[in-house]
Amino acid sequence: MSESTQETLYCIGCGAAIQTTAPQAAGYTPASALKKALATDTRDLYCQRCFRLRHYNEIVPVGLTDDDFRHLLAAIRDATALVVYVVDIFDLNGSIIPGLQRFVGDNPVLLVGNKEDVLPRQIRRTKVREWMNQQVRAQGIKPVDVALTSAKKGHSIDDLLALIEKYRRGRDVYVVGVTNVGKSTLINRIIANNTGLKDLITTSRFPGTTLDKIEIPLDDGQKMVDTPGIIHPEQMAHVLSGDDLKLVSPQREIRPKGYQLGNGQTLFLGGVARLDIIDALKPTGTVYVDNNLPLHRTKTENAENFYAKHVGELITPPTGDAVKDFPPLVRHEFKTTAVTDIVFEGLGWVTVGADTRVAGWAPRGVDVVTRPAMINKK
């Protein structure tokens, strides 16, 4: 069957147009697999990339650029729709889409913070929403509301759907976000809640699994559109392998770990970050990262030699072949005036006391920022 004589078919996993001629391009499917799919049910048609990702967790790179993604998103400006902007609570700065306002035009934006389920219970959710709102407004984005949810666990999905109905007012819904924030997982959860179909859209820990718009019909004749994730290079996900991401990205509710970190001490967060206490009135440090991430304390004067000697072995991740390609850790210094969270984007944070001078280290390109402590026991 010639591709030129048949209607254009699309992968239901990533949205790319199916083609059989260019193995390295998006939507490639072997001609034999396409023929077999057409003989059964085209609704179950996956490209080779999605098939490998779903069944073998194997990522196959394709030739789409960041400009390609932005071109697809530009169509939102001309639409009349509600924009659901999904961010990762643990990587908010890394979730920012530069120039998002240009893409959405006059359309309202509903900000959704994903991975709420792994936040410690002591954190007031109203405080998290207020912080998220402040951060995106500083980037020129003015959300009509802020919601928290867990795409993985299905937390607060009904509440989110109620907010979507409240603000879309019979219009289409465009779901946007950078790669690896759980956007497609969230849409899969919404689809499953409403239709019973599970894992329709391809998801993984690897950045950039949605390659074109995927349209899901709504009951009133409008549609929900899953857009491709904007590739944001300043994300922890782009410097770690899929296996290492499992050790870094929190998967369960975080259990805080208290450390008595005094002057001249360093705490390594795996091999992906470190915190130096330069000057503190009293020992300080409560760590909020994945429960399984190895933590190691040492003297700051020995920290560089300790890292060079033990990275990939005693302090992991990175692991295996990723060690030699792992970017160097870059230093960011801060002086606190109140109890403060030192936030390592995509990893978690360490809470330190007031009047403390610290240095946070993260892979080159990954941000380290501060914020008022989310949990202040004083």
From TrEMBL:
* CDD domains according to UniProt: YqeH (cd01855)
Where does the record place the CP-type G domain? 69-233
Matching Gene3D superfamilies: P-loop containing nucleotide triphosphate hydrolases
Listed InterPro entries: G_CP_dom, GTP-bd, GTP-bd_ribosome_bgen_YqeH, Mito_lipid_metab_GTPase, NOA1/YqeH-like_C, P-loop_NTPase
Pfam families membership: MMR_HSR1, YqeH-like_C
Q: Which SUPFAM superfamilies is this protein grouped with?
A: P-loop containing nucleoside triphosphate hydrolases
What NCBIfam families would the database entry show? Answer: GTPase_YqeH (TIGR03597)
Q: What is this protein called?
A: Ribosome biogenesis GTPase YqeH
